[in-house]
Amino acid sequence: MADDPANRDADPAAPEDAVPAPSEAASEHAAPEPVPEERATEHVIPESETSEPPPPQQPVFDQPYDEPLPPELDPAEQYLLRVRPRAREQKRMSPGTRTALLGLAFVAPCAVIALGLYFIVKGGSPRVAPQPAESASVAAPQASDSPDAAAVAIVDGPPSLLKAAPADSAFGEETDDGEPEPPKKAPPKPKHYASVAQAAAESCSTASVDGLSRQIIDQARCIKPNAFVPLPSRPNLVLKEHVFPYLELDARNHLLKALDAHTSGKMTVNSVLRTVAQQYLVWRWSSNKRCGVQLATPPGESNHEIGVALDIAEAGTWRPALEAQDFKWLGTSDRVHFDYKGSENPAHTATDVLAFQALWNRNHPTDKIATTGKYSPETEQRLKKAPPDGFPLGATCAKSSLPKH
């Protein structure tokens, strides 16, 4: 059937100048169309290909922990790939967190210091109850404050003693020639003994015969005023407890010169004057190996009884100054002991023994003993019977009652 021209003109899909499509067989054997030379030269390399390649990403490390890893990796590599991202994420810290931590590290110590200062200022230091004032000096006549003046006044009451201070040297632990070492605990209230003999057997403190000793000192000062002269107070002089601060006049004056020449040093005196009653106690303690006393002189023979000896804690420190004032160090046998050699007493007449003999005769008119000032067996027998707290009749300065010496 011939094509109807009218129908051909009416078909819009078949224009007149359309080229018929080649068949499949012809397209297979057709040669490729050559690329025009101008289009080949117009190819431009993108700018991104000319710049440095971006750093390789590591998608494996950024994978979620639960995602499967490539199966070709061995277990060790899979473990590392799962652990390393976790550690890296834990170490990762934002700048804001870092700044906050640095600020906290600076502010925290400042807050602690400020809090401490606040409590210190608000609370204040703990308050201590005021302590009662101690006696600052030894009662003595006004004229005796001068080293060259003689003290002749009688002390009727017990002398006030300075508070003891702890020893600053190794000599503080040495046992002197009579005084027992002080107890570490506060001693109980002194017991009253019936006799000096009982006090020697049961006590370990010379304070047990304190009353009798004060009577002996008062009586001795009536007999010989310059024998026992009160030792005045000095800022650098400290007296231990139960120390009787009396010396023979010349010894006292030279001791004051040593103290006044070395005001920066402290002298702690453990013993100065010791009465015959006290000397009897320490002698018995030494003989019986009691109360820690290792060395003691028999009564009537100690230089402490005649007021020319003293025991000090800082013996090594004060030795040059005391030797310059005619004091002699006893030596290693008694490292705390010094004797004043300026006053010699060759007759060994102890004024304290003479004072005890006078007191005994006054209180025992029917049992009198010789007032010789020497420690005899008769004197020792009466001393052992004497009351440690003192006789009913004390010292007297009446000339009719004073023994001749």
Q: What's the helix count?
A: 13
Largest sheet: 5 strands, mixed
Low-confidence stretches: 1-10, 12-16, 22-28, 59-64, 125-176
Task: Please list the strands of the largest sheet in the order they lie side by side.
Answer: 2-4-5-7-6
Q: Give average pLDDT, whole number.
A: 74
How far apart the termini lie comes to 191 Å
The best one-word shape is elongated
Element order, helices and strands? HHHHHHHHEEEHEHEHEEHH
How many E-type strands? 7
Structural class by helix and strand composition: mainly alpha
Radius of gyration over C-alpha positions, nearest whole angstrom = 56 Å
- State the helicity in percent bands: 25-40%
As a percent range, the share of strand residues is 5-15%
Task: Identify the notable features of this structure and list them briefly.
two-stranded antiparallel sheet, disordered N terminus, five-stranded mixed sheet, 13 helices, 405 residues
Characterize the structure shown:
- The chain has 405 residues and is mostly helical.
- A five-stranded mixed beta sheet has the order 2-4-5-7-6, covered by helices on one side.
- The chain is 35% helix and 6% strand.
- It is built from 13 helices and seven strands.
- It has helices spanning 5-10, 24-28, 37-41, 47-50, 75-91, 95-123, 196-202, 210-223, 249-261, 276-287, 315-323, 351-363, 377-385, and strands spanning 229-230, 237-239, 246-247, 267-271, 309-312, 327-329, 337-340.
